[in-house]
Specification:
- By secondary structure, the protein is an alpha/beta fold.
- It has 13 helices and 14 strands.
- It has a 7-stranded mixed beta sheet with strand order 2-10-9-8-5-3-4, sandwiched between helices.
- Bound molecules: pyridoxal-5'-phosphate.
């Protein structure tokens, strides 16, 4: 018997998001070698598109690392943090914590600016932290997937820059779905993933280094993620490792789709369907965790109502409706569901389908939904 999935799951969790049909077709392209001229042409195209989509300043280096979002995180940290670097990490949830762990692994002395899960970091808090604890690097998550919170990077990055720190931003759940502007906001290094708002399968992680970050590179202790060698491959055309041509084809197509739609239009689409979802949720008597001004458009942290078995709801959605949604992590375990509306998943039909499925799942537990 085949173990392959037999039906398309409707991926409305925190990631992966549904893969766009054009991207699925790109995945089936013939395998080609790493130095094939067709491969090199795609790499050039990906680099140029990523530079534009990150809105990176001239002289930046943008490329896609083999691996998922965590590989992007590791690439950025491994090339900017050395033994004894002072890192201030804003921890607003599970992925801020991962960023702090990554900095520690690469030898940094880490100060954690802890923020209550479900809230964004206040600019004043960062200012105060940097006054008492100077840092070479400030690292933070733009879209905290574990809590559904958007950190105001546009206001936080300039504060870190004013203290002469290198600003590292995790845009895993925002890139392509939520406004992000590397140059205007003063971000020095940023990474994302292929499987959320870009609508490609997991496996590649877009990263960008500004000229300021490139100047402050350290000797990289990772073999796989050494930016110098990645640059030697992407630009110098020298073999480093066997990048998956199938994934490069998929990412090339996914980025082309993003540019055809246009970044602004894509951001607006994600906002519109987030608002539609919130409106429909309200009719079910449900709410989300973060306050209004701190909510992500891409991932919604829906509070589990009292008296509802949250795992049974997820089992019903998956078993009867083929819909995946996410669980709460860490202190939010059992308290929230995480609903992602990302990439092609950000569409009215998925909102209506999910709301109907939730109504059914609640009815199974004897909770009638108001008419
Ligand atoms: C904000 C954030 N950072 C990092 C990661 C890690 O990415 P991956 O699971 O693709 O390695 C995730 C994954 O969901 C994430 O949401």
């Amino acid at each position: 018997v085949s173990l392959l999935p037999e039906s398309d799951r409707i991926l409305l969790g925190p990631g992966p998001s549904p893969t766009a049909p054009r991207v699925m077709r790109a995945l089936a392209s013939p395998t080609i070698g790493v130095l094939d001229p067709m491969m090199l042409a795609m790499l050039d195209d990906v680099r140029a598109r990523l530079g534009r989509l990150f809105r990176a300043p001239a002289g930046s280096l943008a490329l896609a690392v083999s691996g998922t979002g965590t590989a992007g995180m590791e690439t950025v940290i491994a090339n900017l943090v050395k033994e004894g670097s002072r890192a201030l990490v804003v921890v607003t949830g599970y992925f801020g914590d991962r960023l702090a762990q990554m900095c520690t692994r690469y030898g940094a002395t880490v100060t954690r600016l802890e923020v209550e899960w479900g809230r964004a970091c206040e600019p004043d808090a960062l200012e105060r932290a940097l006054r008492t604890t100077p840092a070479d690097i400030v690292a933070l998550v733009h879209a905290e997937t574990s809590t559904g919170v958007l950190n105001p990077v546009d206001r936080l990055a300039p504060i870190a820059r004013a203290h002469d720190a290198i600003v590292v931003v995790d845009a895993v759940t925002s890139f392509g779905g939520q406004r992000l502007d590397v140059e205007a906001w003063g971000i020095d290094a940023c990474y994302s993933c292929s499987q959320k708002c870009l609508g490609a399968p997991p496996g590649l992680s877009p990263v960008v280094f500004s000229p300021r970050a490139l100047e402050r590179r350290v000797r990289c202790r990772s073999f796989y993620f050494d930016l110098k060698w990645l640059e030697d491959y992407w630009i110098g055309r020298k073999y480093h490792h066997t990048m998956s041509s199938a994934l490069v084809c998929a990412l090339t197509e996914a980025l082309a789709i993003v540019e055809e739609e246009g970044l602004e239009a894509r951001w607006q689409r994600h906002e519109r369907h987030h608002l539609l979802f919130l409106d429909r949720l309200k009719h079910l008597g449900l709410s989300v965790l973060p306050p209004e001004s701190e909510r992500l458009w891409t991932v919604n942290a829906v509070r589990v109502p009292d008296g509802i078995d949250e795992a049974a709801v997820r089992r019903c959605l998956l078993g009867e409706f083929n819909i995946e949604i996410g669980v709460g992590l860490g202190p939010l375990s059992g308290k929230i569901w995480r609903v992602g509306l990302m990439g092609t998943g950000s569409a009215p039909r998925f909102v209506h389908l999910l709301i109907t499925a939730l109504e059914q799942a609640f009815a199974r537990q004897g909770r009638q939904v108001p008419a």
